[in-house]
């Protein structure tokens, strides 16, 4: 089943074009890496697919329903319930503990505080950072912060995870650990993942790679592991 579709998506910032008519499909449960040089439109494409930005022209569809022309409130609700978003620097709330950060999407969706904390603790444990549950972000390492941010992005068990350079601020080992866990959890839950990265080794975790250049699709191909005999798919 096709989960996400972009049809001739165009986006510009003032007189500077970012996307020049992007068309692509992403299947349910697929992990897709969007790669290309800096400034090619990778993050803009992710933000349009996630409903964070509205394209200037073209259409974005999620599970057969057009979403780019819906209200900001409707798109925000979609991001709280169906989508998870993971950014390069995690963007945890500095005043909240790890458990409070992870529980936040559940609380916004109406889950009672005690139940939300229980689920948050479970996700922190799954990501290997249960020990920082009552620690604030400023007292954590970069890897711990990003694992907490990953737990927050996955706590609602979204159908789609959008990850924008999720390992860009981490050292190689921490980045590999975070990506390994994201892929494992996505496989377990059959979560679709759209992963923006400029690093070939990170793109190798994906089933398929979409390479952008100057706001257009340059080419597509299999991710490294998916191309190997006995790969993840």
Automatic annotation (TrEMBL):
PROSITE patterns xrefs: ABC_TRANSPORTER_2
Keyword Transport: yes
Segments forming domain ABC transporter: 4-230
Keywords: ATP-binding, Nucleotide-binding, Transport
A cellular component annotation (GO) from this entry: plasma membrane
InterPro entries xrefs: AAA+_ATPase, ABC_transporter-like_ATP-bd, ABC_transpr_LolD-like, MacB-like_ATP-bd, P-loop_NTPase
Record keyword Nucleotide-binding present: yes
Pfam families found in the cross-reference section: ABC_tran
GO molecular function: ATP binding; ATP hydrolysis activity; transmembrane transporter activity
Top-level division of the source organism's lineage: Bacteria
SUPFAM superfamilies in the record: P-loop containing nucleoside triphosphate hydrolases
PANTHER family linked to this entry: ABC TRANSPORTER RELATED, IMPORT ATP-BINDING PROTEIN
Protein name in the entry: Putative ABC transport system ATP-binding protein
